[in-house]
Amino acid sequence: MEVPLHLDARYTPPAVAIHWLAALLILGAIAMGVYMTGLQVSPFRLRLYNWHKWLGFTILALSVLRLLWRLSHRPPADVAMPAWQRRAAHISHWAMYALFFAVPLAGWLYSSASGFPVVVFGVLPLPDLVAADEALARALKPWHANLALALGALIALHVAAVCKHQFMDHDGLLSRMLPRALQRQPQ
Predict the structure, then answer these.
(1) What is the pLDDT confidence band of residue 76, given thresholds at 50, 70 and 90?
(2) Among 26, 131, 137, 142, who pairs with 114 as Cys (CB 3.0-4.6 Å)?
(3) Domain 7-182, second-level architecture
(4) For 38-82, where are the alpha helices, taking DSSP H only?
């Protein structure tokens, strides 16, 4: 039986919106990154790289907004769970926050070192973070990829933990982050 939640046990609507928008953008960026790296050099691949950079910049900007919101708005109280699970949840959340910044910044550094500017949406040129340097670009490329894989792994762990709480513990944890329109109404 699912535990009903009080209004103060839910995240705020802006936090919910930022969470789900960021989730879609991050999963899209990871999927696009994996897909585009296997393509032959072509105008389509170059277009995907630009879209990937645009997603990365948008994720970075949204992460700044998300962190500011999180620092200025207390999250709801934790659901009842063992202390080790609460610690693991807090550690994994802050690790994801760090990667929300590290992955796009590593990509931006890699793009700068490769000599390919980041022009957001084709109109907003971002400054190069470092000068073009082939050796630095080779060193940064695996950092961007490995940080993205680490973020993907943490997201998988996050989803698995949510599923455990939703389908095994039935503690209402998922309800805290669902948009109100998707909430199951009491009967």
Answers:
(1) confident
(2) 137
(3) Up-down Bundle (1.20)
(4) 43-72
Token pair for 108: 């931006």
**pTM score:** 0.89
The two tokens of residue 66 are: 């998300």
In whole angstroms, give the CA distance from residue 137 to residue 156.
29
Q: Name the region of 112 (left: φ>0; alpha: ψ -120 to 50; beta: rest).
A: alpha
Query: Above 90 in pLDDT, residue 80?
Result: no
Which sign does the torsion angle of CA 44, 115, 98, 148 carry? Answer: positive
Determine the distance from the C-alpha atom of residue 167 to the mean position of all C-alpha atoms in its chain, rounded to a whole number: 24
**What tokens does 98 get?**
């760090």
**Please, what is the Cα angle at 100 between 96 and 101, to 5 degrees?**
125
Specify whether the CB–CB gap between 78 and 164 falls below 8 A: no
Contact by Cβ (8 Å): 21, 62: yes
Cβ contacts of 9 within 8 Å, gap of 6 or more = 76, 77, 79, 172, 176
